[in-house]
Backbone:
């Protein structure tokens, strides 16, 4: 397309305008930074709170249980954790590689940047699949049950008592999110357990921190799934019209009248061994109607526009017209609705785990909140409550900012 | 207008049908057999045939023995039945799970397996023959007609008696594995004689088959009851679902409709106020507060309110409200007025929790809707005419500004119904929401379906009311 550009006029794409508008909205920017912070917390959680020491030195024997534990399904039961741990290891590696390549290649680096990013993505997914064979379906993976997880805190104390020379460097907060300790159940917040412990003696701070991973991945995956379904159905209905539209519109209508939360509850309860992926999937397949209606309306508007007619006249295949030409132009409202959708998906997940219909193996905020309700302990109510509130607010803020930036009518 | 309402009402039927179909399929095709827990309980207490028979009766009563959507059992072949019987009897290589599965399937087949079983009576393998006789006894016995009818008509009673007599006779057609060949032969001959006498019952013409294909199914049986507003019987409490549903309605509807009405009543003035005072400090404070409220999860607020302001509160001076429930345990001793006050006292916290979320959403929409309208030409005209601000806003702008929040009603209804699940769970109010959570945990399929279908109807009606209220507010909209 660059041949068609008028020289001297800077090329401003639609999204660069949106970005410029968004930057003026201080609250939305704040929200965006908070999202960055949440992602950082999710990725860096093991750096802050983990019961495996970074470094363990005993009589000249060095080891790093922390690093080994990152990809051990006994230490990190859920595949979500494995995903974020892989990100934790690979993101700095990729950044370093990029830096080195940029220095080495000089100007030709810019041209290859996109290919490189794609390469990183593919490498990441491949490694994730390699590290977590048979990921989905919980922790029943014999590969990962080859050894016992050691309690290094106890080991250290024992060694000290025997006057052995042992060095260990722990993360700042040396508790994992799933280690239970009946002796320390329902301990109020103190210097050791910053946010106290829950009924089973698990450290609440660690659970909150790792809960970020669950919430973010629930939000992103469920929304990605339903945006995909909604876009396909909405695009087909809007572009083709006629009986396709009537049939799909009826389907959308039927789905709208569904008591969605009941449906989600039922589906979640019917699955015997629920994992967090089931919850994502269930939220994804039940919430696509909003996106489908939006996309349908946009396609109805766009398919008659000149560029779409031109594309048709040029004989471009229908699939490419729909997904390559019209969809990028129709995607703005979807982006807004997806941002709000992340907030509501997180809410639905925490409601489910609040009701005890979530994945019991992961650190979910709703579960802790329910424990606080049952045991009537304020620290168990406040921490997860504000965590959910914070994440939901942040995504709603970004959503509002995006909506205002996209909608010229609301621009001040 | 009437024609429009009628058309919409008629359109609801296919939508409702579609929803019931999807829900039904989800529930019935989900892993785990409905009522399987019952059978497990039974098999622990009583072993053997009694279990099999009572479990079969249970399944028949709830139509669980029938195929879900389409009945193709008339195409069953003798070889298929032979394979099932062999698997059930453990002939050849079968795992325990396969055996149980084959047994259950054979029991479910009922009458459609009978002709094939009879023809297998002469099979050469004695083990197979034993199994065939066993399953014949189970499959040939017939269920009673309308077993839950407390006062059956004389005709039904007579037919039930006949069925009972025949069943009793068929139950005697049995032998033990260790019996001698002559006894076995006698029983086998008895079965053959019985089948020859009742052969007509098992032969179907093309029209019968077509009817069976569509109507001898779980879904058809369910709909057959549904059109009479009969949601069946709870699998756990054995009480009619419809009656329990009606008794639960007063809790759920009071909560959800009450909080919706309250939300609209408060949201409209707030929205108007902040739209009129746009940009002022009060508006900004309101907008921020509403935004916060909008993002606050209701279960968090409910838990906090209970922690601070209920009887369980750590501060004695703050123990204002009960910890939950619908009314006090000694409510029956109060006067009628006292009872009402008691219920109101119990409902303060749940209503707050259910209202503030939709309140926040509604007033935000009200504000932006009104802001858009205020910029319109006709509002400027009204001002230019010298009308007072009260008339301009209250009469000219408000009506059009109401449109967006009316649209929201349809969207809020399912959310409110869903939200009531959590609120009822937290406050221990025995409404539909808590009921359905219990039912889901116990796999009480009839209850789950009933509650979900009922709330579907509520949503459908809500959608219709929304569209009709457009016409009330906006005279330009007419439904022809």
Residues:
């Amino acid at each position: 397309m660059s041949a068609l550009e008028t020289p001297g006029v800077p090329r401003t794409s639609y999204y660069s305008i949106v970005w410029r508008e968004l930057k003026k909205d201080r609250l939305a920017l704040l929200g965006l930074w908070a999202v960055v912070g949440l992602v950082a917390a999710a990725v860096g959680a093991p750096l802050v709170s983990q019961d495996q020491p970074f470094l363990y030195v005993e009589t000249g024997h060095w080891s790093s249980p922390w690093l080994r534990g990152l990809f051990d399904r006994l230490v990190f039961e859920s595949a979500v954790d494995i995903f974020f741990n892989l990100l934790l290891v690979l993101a700095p590696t990729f950044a370093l590689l990029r830096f080195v390549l940029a220095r080495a290649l000089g100007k030709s680096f810019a041209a290859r940047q996109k290919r490189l990013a794609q390469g990183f993505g593919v490498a990441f997914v491949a490694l994730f699949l390699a590290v977590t064979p048979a990921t989905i379906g919980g922790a029943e993976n014999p590969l990962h049950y080859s050894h016992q997880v050691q309690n290094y805190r106890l080991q250290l104390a024992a060694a000290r008592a025997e006057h052995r020379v042992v060095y260990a460097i722990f993360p700042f907060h040396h508790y994992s999110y799933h280690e239970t300790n009946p002796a320390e159940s329902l301990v109020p917040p103190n210097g050791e357990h910053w946010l106290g412990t829950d009924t089973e003696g698990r450290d609440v701070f660690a659970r909150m921190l790792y809960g970020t991973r669950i919430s973010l991945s629930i939000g992103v995956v469920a929304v990605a799934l339903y945006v995909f379904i909604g876009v396909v159905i909405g695009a087909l209905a809007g572009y083709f019209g006629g009986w396709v539209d009537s049939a799909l519109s009826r389907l959308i209508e039927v789905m709208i009248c569904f008591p969605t939360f009941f449906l989600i509850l039922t589906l979640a309860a019917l699955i015997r061994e629920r994992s967090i992926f089931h919850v994502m999937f269930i939220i994804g397949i039940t919430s696509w109607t909003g996106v489908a209606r939006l996309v349908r309306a946009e396609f109805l508007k766009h398919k008659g526009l000149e560029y779409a007619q031109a594309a048709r006249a040029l004989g471009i295949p229908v699939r490419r017209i729909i997904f390559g030409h019209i969809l990028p132009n129709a995607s703005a409202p979807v982006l807004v609705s997806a941002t709000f959708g992340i907030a509501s998906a997180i809410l639905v997940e925490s409601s489910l785990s609040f009701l005890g219909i979530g994945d019991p193996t992961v650190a979910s905020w709703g579960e802790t909140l329910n424990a606080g309700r049952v045991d009537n302990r304020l620290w168990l109510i406040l921490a997860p409550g504000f965590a959910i509130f914070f994440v939901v607010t942040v995504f709603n803020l970004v959503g509002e900012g995006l909506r205002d930036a996209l909608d010229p009518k609301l621009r001040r | 207008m009437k024609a429009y309402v009628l058309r919409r009402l008629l359109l609801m039927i296919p939508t409702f049908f579609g929803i019931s179909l999807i829900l039904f399929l989800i529930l019935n095709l989900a892993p785990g057999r409905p009522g399987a827990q019952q059978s497990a309980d039974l098999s622990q207490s009583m072993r053997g045939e009694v279990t099999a028979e009572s479990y079969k009766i249970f399944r028949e009563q709830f139509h669980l023995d029938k195929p879900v959507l389409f009945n193709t059992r008339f195409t069953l072949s003798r070889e298929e039945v032979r394979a099932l019987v062999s698997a059930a009897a453990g002939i050849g290589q079968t795992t325990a799970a396969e055996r149980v599965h084959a047994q259950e399937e054979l029991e479910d087949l009922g009458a459609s397996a009978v002709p094939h079983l009879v023809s297998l009576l002469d099979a050469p393998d004695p083990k197979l023959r034993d199994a065939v006789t066993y399953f014949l006894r189970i499959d040939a016995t017939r269920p009673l007609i309308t077993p839950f009818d407390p006062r059956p008509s004389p005709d039904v009673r007579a037919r039930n008696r006949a069925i009972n007599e025949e069943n009793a006779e068929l139950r005697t057609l049995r032998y033990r594995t260790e019996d001698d060949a002559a006894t076995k032969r006698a029983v086998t001959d008895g079965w053959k004689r019985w089948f020859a006498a009742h052969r007509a019952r098992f032969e179907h013409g093309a029209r019968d088959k077509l009817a069976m294909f569509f109507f001898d199914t779980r879904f058809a049986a369910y709909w057959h009851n549904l059109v009479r507003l009969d949601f069946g019987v709870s699998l756990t409490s054995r009480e009619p679902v419809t009656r329990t549903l009606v008794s639960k309605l007063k809790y759920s509807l009071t909560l959800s409709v009450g909080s919706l009405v309250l939300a609209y009543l408060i949201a409209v003035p707030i929205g108007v106020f902040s739209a009129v005072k746009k940009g002022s400090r009060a508006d900004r404070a309101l907008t921020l507060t509403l935004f916060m409220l909008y993002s606050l999860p209701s279960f968090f607020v409910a838990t906090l309110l209970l922690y601070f302001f209920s009887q369980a509160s750590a501060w004695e001076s703050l123990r204002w409200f009960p910890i939950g429930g619908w009314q006090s345990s000694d409510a029956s001793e109060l006067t009628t007025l006292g009872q009402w006050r008691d219920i109101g006292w119990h409902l303060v916290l749940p209503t707050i929790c259910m209202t503030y979320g939709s309140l926040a959403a509604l007033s935000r929409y009200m504000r932006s809707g009104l802001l858009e309208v205020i910029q319109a030409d006709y509002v400027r005209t009204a001002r230019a005419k010298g009308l007072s601000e009260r008339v301009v806003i209250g009469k000219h702008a408000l009506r059009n500004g109401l449109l967006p929040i009316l649209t929201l009603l349809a969207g809020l209804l399912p959310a409110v119904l869903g939200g009531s699940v959590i609120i009822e769970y937290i406050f221990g109010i025995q409404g539909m929401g808590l009921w359905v959570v219990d039912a889901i945990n116990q796999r009480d399929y009839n209850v789950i379906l009933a509650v979900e279908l009922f709330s579907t109807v509520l949503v459908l009606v809500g959608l219709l009311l929304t569209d009709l209220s457009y016409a009330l507010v906006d005279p330009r909209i007419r439904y022809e």
